[in-house]
Design a protein that fits this description.
One of its GO terms (cellular component) is cell division site. Its main location: membrane. Keywords: Cell cycle, Cell division, Cell inner membrane, Cell membrane, Membrane, Transmembrane, Transmembrane helix. With about 290 residues, the chain is of the alpha/beta class. It has two domains: about 90 residues, Ubiquitin-like (UB roll) (Roll); about 130 residues, Rossmann fold (3-Layer(aba) Sandwich). The chain is built from seven helices and 13 strands. It has a ten-stranded mixed beta sheet with strand order 6-5-4-7-8-9-10-11-12-13, with helices on one face. A three-stranded mixed beta sheet has the order 1-3-2, with helices on one face. Strand 4 and strand 5 form a beta hairpin. Helix 3 packs antiparallel against helix 4. The radius of gyration is 41 Å and the shape is elongated.
């Protein structure tokens, strides 16, 4: 077969009347363009299929992760390794708990530590309210903590734990260092302890004398004083009743009397139970509705 007579072979061979060559547009066979289009589409499909298979098998992800691990390891060899862990704001959180959350030793590549992950672990510890974690090159991991403040000691089913103002349990470690915290008892006492502590603090002259507070029926409080006296607060108007006790103590030295119980549950009167005798109303006490 003579290829010179083929339109492709004869490209550029046409001449005009003067004998000069005349360029002409190459004429492709009709089957060429559809074939090229089909080939391009096939390449796209195969590329997409290959990418999908790589993603499904995790090969691409594994290769990228491997490369990253190799890079991070190399940075440690270049001096970017953990040499010290600085912690600011730690008062009660055990150092062992912080190290467990960091999960790094001396020589660990500094870039392998994810600050967000460490922050999340730290904030999951009982004492820590918030944490900030920074990598400080070349070899320091800096941690800033804000710890929770214990508000009371909660007794529940014979077990004693510290709680903060939100009622969150802080654990029992170090409980002996907080002898002046109010002692509360009751299943739901931790949920409403913040209101109780706020109420007691409103009368500083008496708040320090409270030994314990017992939640009764999930509705009200009984307060135990340091002299053994019990104050039974009402379900409603507890703040007003507590303030009234303080006023009566100032004017009539109520808490210095030989009284075992001060009962404020009756909205019309204050009932007193003498240490050795029966109950009696407070002398001179008028009805509250008057």
């Amino acid at each position: 077969m003579r290829l010179l007579n083929h339109p492709i072979a004869a490209f550029g061979q046409r001449r005009d009347k003067t004998g000069r060559r005349v360029a002409q547009r190459r004429i492709w066979p009709r089957w060429v363009r559809p074939s090229l289009t089909a080939a391009a589409a096939l390449c796209v499909v195969l590329t997409a299929l290959g990418g999908w298979l790589a993603w499904r098998d995790g090969w691409a992800g594994r290769q990228a992760e491997l490369a990253l691990d190799q890079f991070v390891t190399a940075t440690a060899g270049a001096g970017l390794a953990v040499e010290e862990i600085l912690v600011e704001g730690r008062l009660h959180t055990p150092a062992e708990s912080i190290l467990a959350a960091v999960d790094a030793n001396r020589g660990t590549p500094l870039l392998s530590i994810n600050p967000s992950t460490v922050k999340e672990r730290l904030e999951g510890l009982p004492w820590i309210r918030s944490a900030a974690v920074e990598r400080q090159l070349p070899g320091t991991l800096f941690i800033r903590l804000v710890e929770r403040r214990p508000m009371a000691v909660w007794q529940r089913r014979g077990h004693f734990v510290l709680i903060d103002e939100q009622g969150r349990e802080l654990g029992d470690e170090g409980i002996e260092y907080f002898p002046r915290l109010p002692f509360i008892v009751g299943e739901d006492a931790h949920r409403v302890a913040a209101d109780l502590v706020s109420m007691l603090a409103a009368v500083p002259s008496l708040s320090g004398r409270i030994v314990s507070a017992v939640r009764v029926g999930g509705r009200r409080w009984n307060l135990q004083l340091d002299n053994g006296m019990e104050i039974r607060l009402p379900e409603e108007r507890a703040r007003e009743a507590w303030a009234e006790v303080a006023a009566l103590d100032r004017t009539q030295r109520l808490l210095s009397r030989q009284i075992s119980i001060i009962d404020l549950r009756d909205p019309a009167r204050i009932n007193l139970r003498r240490a050795k005798d029966g109950a009696a109303p407070l002398p001179g006490k008028k009805d509250r509705d008057a």
